[in-house]
Write a structure and sequence with these properties.
This protein is mainly α. The protein has helices spanning about 1-30, 35-50, 60-90, 90-100, 100-115, 120-145, 150-170, 180-200, 210-240, 240-245, 250-265, 270-290, 290-304. Helix content is about 80%, strand content about 0%. The radius of gyration is 20 Å and the shape is globular.
């Protein structure tokens, strides 16, 4: 039971940090292209992980390396590249709101690919409340956040990519340390980025790193949001499962809205607060196993 609480705490901290990255990345894109920002973030993160754990396993296993290759492609490159592109076309708040649909896609994938994480009444009830909250916020966004179809579609694609990544994490051997798992994921992510950088003739402006605003943003994204949070996310999935971990993604809109208001002067309205409350309710119902069946039994017991 103690380990489960640790899993929940790590998932919550990770989501809190990731909820702030939309506003920080949005600001960073004033200096770098989406691909530049992504490459620098993962290069710094990989070098840091190499310093703290410079060990290698030279026993080649094709199936294992193939798994890490897909982890690097989905969670190490595609998700963040598409997210950065989405932030170029729509607001940081809106990307955070749409990405909160990750648990829906993750649960659908888990339902068909695992034996122990199936749909149930509790899960569907939490989904219903959370999705209602998301739509309320998005409806409000039509007037406040100036939705952009291209950016919004890219944000939905982000959700699907991360759901695939989270389900792939379940297949990693538990003997892998969190640091080594993330380091190998980042390595393959960087390998996938190199030909893209070459094809599009992207020039990395390393000199911008010496700008104090840029340096804080890039090192926050690389060391905190990437290194530390990737490790905690993988450990959380290992402890409490894909569905329970990704349910915390519902909290991203709340953190994204607050951080965007503070850092980018984006507005928060009453409809956003109502939607955020519904999203939070969905998370609590999923985590505390408050089902309709239990509520009805409790009511029957008090009236008998």
């Amino acid at each position: 039971m103690k380990n489960k609480y640790i899993g929940y705490v790590m998932a919550f901290i990770t989501i809190f940090v990731w909820g702030t990255t939309y506003a920080i990345t949005k600001n960073l894109l004033n200096y770098f292209t989406p691909l530049e920002a992504l490459f620098l973030r993962f290069l710094i993160a990989y070098l840091f992980l190499m310093i703290i754990k410079p060990t290698f396993n030279f026993k080649f296993n094709f199936q294992e390396e193939k798994l890490f290759l897909f982890l690097g492609l989905t969670g190490g490159m595609l998700y963040f590249l598409v997210e950065n592109l989405a932030l170029k076309y729509t607001s940081a708040s809106n990307v955070g709101l749409i990405v909160s649909s990750i648990p829906i896609f993750s649960s659908i994938i888990a339902h068909f690919t695992t034996e122990d994480e199936k749909f149930d009444t509790n899960l569907l009830l939490g989904f219903a409340l959370a999705v209602t909250g998301i739509f309320i916020i998005l409806y409000n966004g039509n007037k406040v956040l100036k939705l952009n179809p291209i950016g919004d579609i890219l944000a939905v694609v982000c959700s699907i990519i991360w759901a695939v990544y989270s389900n792939l994490l379940r297949k990693v051997d538990n003997s892998y340390s969190g640091i080594l798992l993330v380091r190998k994921t980042f390595f393959y992510g960087l390998i996938f980025m190199l030909p893209v950088l070459y094809v599009f003739k992207v020039k990395i402006h390393f000199e911008y790193i010496f700008n104090k605003d840029v340096s804080f943003s890039i090192f926050y994204l690389a060391l905190v949001a990437s290194c530390i949070c990737f490790i905690m996310w993988s450990r959380s999935i290992n402890i409490i499962g894909v569905i329970k971990t990704t349910n915390f993604v519902y909290l991203i809109p709340l953190v994204a809205m607050i951080s965007s208001m503070l850092l980018l002067d984006e507005k928060i309205t009453p409809l956003m607060i109502v939607g955020g409350a519904l999203i939070l309710s969905g998370v609590l119902i999923n985590d505390k196993k408050i089902t309709l069946g239990k509520l009805f039994k409790a009511k029957a017991a008090t009236t008998s």
